[in-house]
Request: fold
Amino acid sequence: MNVIETVDLTKRFGNFTANDKINLTVEKNEIKCICGENGAGKSTLMNMLYGALQPTSGKILINGKEVHFKSPVDAIACGIGMVHQHSKLVPSLTVYENIMLGIEISKKAGKFNSPFIDEKEERRQVQELIEKYHFQLNAEDKVADLSVGQCQQLEILKMLYRNVDILILDEPTSVLTPQEVDWLIDNLKNLSRQGKTILVITHKLREVMAVSDSVTVIRQGKVIGVARTKDTNERELAQMMVGRDVVLTVSNENGGEPGSDTVYEVSGLCTNNHLGLDVLKNVSFQIHNREIYGIAGVEGNGQSELIKVLTGIMLATKGSVRLFGEDITNLWPDELRRKKIGIIPEDRYKHGLCRDMTLADNCSAGYLDDAEITRRGILNRKNMQKRCHDYIEKYDIRIADEYGNVSQCSGGNAQKLIIAREFESSPRLIIACQPTRGVDVGSIEYIHQCLLDFRNKGYSVLLISSELSEIMSLSDRVGVMYKGEIIGEADPKTASVADIGLLMAGTIPEGMR
Amino acid sequence: MRNHIGKKIINSILPVALAFTIGGIIIALLGSNPFEVYGVMIRKSLMEMKGITRTLQLASPLLLTGIAISLCFKANIFNMGIEGQLVFGGFMAGIFGSYVTIPNPVLHILLCFAVGIACALAFALIPAVLRAYYHVDEMVVTLVLNYAMAKVLEYLSTSVFRDAGSGYVCTPAVQKTAKFFLLGKTKMTAFVFVSFAVFLIISFIMTRTKLGYSIEALGKNPDFAEATGLHSRKKVMTLMLLSGAVSGIAGTGWMLAEKTFYTLDFSGSPGLGWDGMLIALLGRHSPAGIFVAAIFYSALKTGSEKIGLYTDVPNEIVSVIQGLMILFLSIQFLDERFGLFEKLKQKKADKEG
Amino acid sequence: MRGLDSILYESIVYLTPTLLCVLGGIFAYKANVLNIALEGMMLAGAFVSVLVAHSHENKLFLAYLAAFAVCIFLGLVFSVLGVTLKGNVIIIGLAINMLVPAVAGFVMKLMSLASIPVKWFSTNSIMISIPVIRDIPILGPLFSGHPPITYISYLLILVMYLLMYKTKFGVHVRVVGENEDAAINLGLNTKKYKILAVLIGAGCCGLAGTDLALERLSLYTNNMTAGRGFIAIAAIYCGRGDPLKCTLYAILFSITNAVAEYFSLLVSASLLLKVVPYVVMVVVLSAASALNRRNSRTRGAFSEN
Reply:
């Protein structure tokens, strides 16, 4: 019998159809992967399955019975739990408090529940659960102190405590080291053997092949194909996802060897966070001309802080940054841009663009002081609009209204707007942070090509990404960050993913010592 | 875009209508005819030459405080210090105008303005530095500093600068050379023109310059503003000081053109700075909106001065209506994303679907 | 010694309404609903309690109840506009702060009064004098000779602490403020918690106003709260919503005020000394903020840490 079945499930947002007559079946105890590009409608589908969204039309059947979830709580009551991509935990509370949230155990006052919480009992139950599933957690730790991987375990545990039979995981591996990914895959298989049914949403085909029993591919809101995993392969899935043949890996091999002149030199960089903890410890690296230097690492190991320091929004406490020998430590973002450093920030809508301002305003952001834009403090709106128009044409940015706001752009087009802005200012160095996060495959290829072309012209790129495959295929050299340090450097052409994975987990592999 | 402006206008008119309706009900409950009361207000403020010029005269400080508030609020700086800065600037300008003798009226007035602006600026500097460089919540600080300033001025006007010849607490009147006089048979002074000029300059800054761009960016996404090199701390300083200077002009003008000496209710109740807040909100922080709102609100004030004379309803009803207006202005009745009407529509659609 | 006793007694006089605002306000603070209407709500409590006492002779209980009810009503207005309709809570707060004195002024004008007295009632009649303790120096002025609400406020320190940290309600309010998504996902009704948090604050403000006007002075004048609501907000900010820390800041501000008041009786520039508490508050607020950010390396004026 099918544990989950959807019949012509459709969700519309206004005129936009996010899910179009989806028919999905999941058998008991199977691990099912739903894959598709960013924006294909995977998340919408999952949100309907666990009650965060209500379908426009169509049916959801759980164990053969039709259900109507009004909220995630209904779904949990029906045995469906969701593990989110972005953690829904409360940092200031402990592990056990997070698990018990909403279902706290009350102290008994005689026959009645008192308003007070029985912390002892809660702690005991949670510790028991942790031991039962062999998770690497401690019931009394504060969530703020956990690693990203541990947070994910906690999210899973939260659902297990609520006795769900069906677990939905949204992009579970995007924040894990390769080794943690393996641990997770083992555990998921283990859970499925214990009788749980598991749905995994992902766009990473390697993991689809490794974990799933069957796979459903979604494109533009429609089911494109269903397959048993053992009967298919990565290339076929990728073709289904995108709708055409795709180059799975771009490589920088045709651009010639990296140069030998040092362009960008970071030495001994240190800083601390607002709690006074050292988050960057002696970070040093050099980038030469005609070179892409990649920084890999599990999120939360200091990359964000490094980016902030290098892009001028956070101060370094020690160390220096040099561009062509000139000291540019702790310069402001506008000064860095005047030194011809292009910045593609980590969080597109936080540091890169302003959603509620016009495309033209965004196209000139960071470069307002250009003579054609501002004279004596007064803006030339006409030139700003012209610049915007040029970028849209040249970079093939697809939008409905040239005079409208950035909020109308898809992720890929928004990112292309940043790419256009930063590349058109004739930079000597590009700092590219998570350049393809949440971007469709077509734009990923385009952005990667832009970075490679820039390098092949003889310029330098600092690429910081948590997408290991991106780092491995683009970079000439890779530095791996762990707990605020670059603990090792490797040549992606010779080093194995396993070696880099070890570095990401903080162990220096035998061959690299 | 046009649709958007239409919504903005409706969003400003609905709360006003709602506030007046409730005000009308209160008036009716007191046994007066609300249409008669509102009729007196409109007739006395907008239908007669004297009323119109009086309205313009009252609008001049409000234009300035309104746009001073907007400068900060639009950039996400909840600067409530306008009231205190205005009162301090006005007070010191008044002291200068009465204690220092300068025969040339133009020079005297100019120097009064210089003193008023300088003092308001100096007072605005405290919260500006605290906000920009020490992240101290500007709202609490400016509110508390307003209370502190009220106490300081109470002290100064009852002791050091008290006009001994007067029966109540006030400072000596400014000298003739420092006064703005009523123009011809009207009820307005040249301060109206000063205020309009300053208002136009600030409007230009808000819409056409890099600083204006910074205001928009800071208001809509401060992280973006900082990351694209707009130096948010410096901009916070600039904006708070600029709005301080504008409040100083408003206070000085109010002193030289209207009050001529300081009393404890110099700024009125609830105070010109607070009126400015209402105007900024009513005008949705756009210069054109602020202009309309300031004229509208000062008409209300002109009218309210006459309510007590022609009807049985106390003037204070206007403060009540004002408070209600701000209360209703807090919610967006219509909005492209989260509007009340849209929400209702959406709910209906959900049910049907 | 008498000087000290008088300063301590006056500190408590000042502390009671401020402390109540603080203890009520921390829940809204933790639920991430900035309630700056504490000032207006307290004034409403003061106005209504005296107004009802003024017009209903010998029905003191009615005055307490009315003040509480009106503040709860204001809390509901705040919640409906701010939480249910998602209005801008800062503007709502300002509006309430302006509306209350406006309405009070309007009503007093109708009554042709500049202030509202309660002639039949002497505040001494409700002061609770505790034997033995009243004769002990220092403890005496702190714990004896105060009206009922002062003792309620002492008790509330403990109650609010337990409510915040030891009950489901407290945990849920904090979760709603810290990660609303998480709360929604686990089926917590976030609006309910926000509204309740605001209402707790409103209720406490009602008590605060009653204490300030009816219990201490049996008199209402407009704007008699004189910024106490904002001082409470400052204390909440400084103590970051922790009931005990916030209480300490409230005590600090109250003592400063009492000391300034005491010395203003002895010095000629007495009015100027009234500025001192406000200045101290700004300084303490700045120091607390600077201390919180002493390790911060971010540059933006709006960056969170």
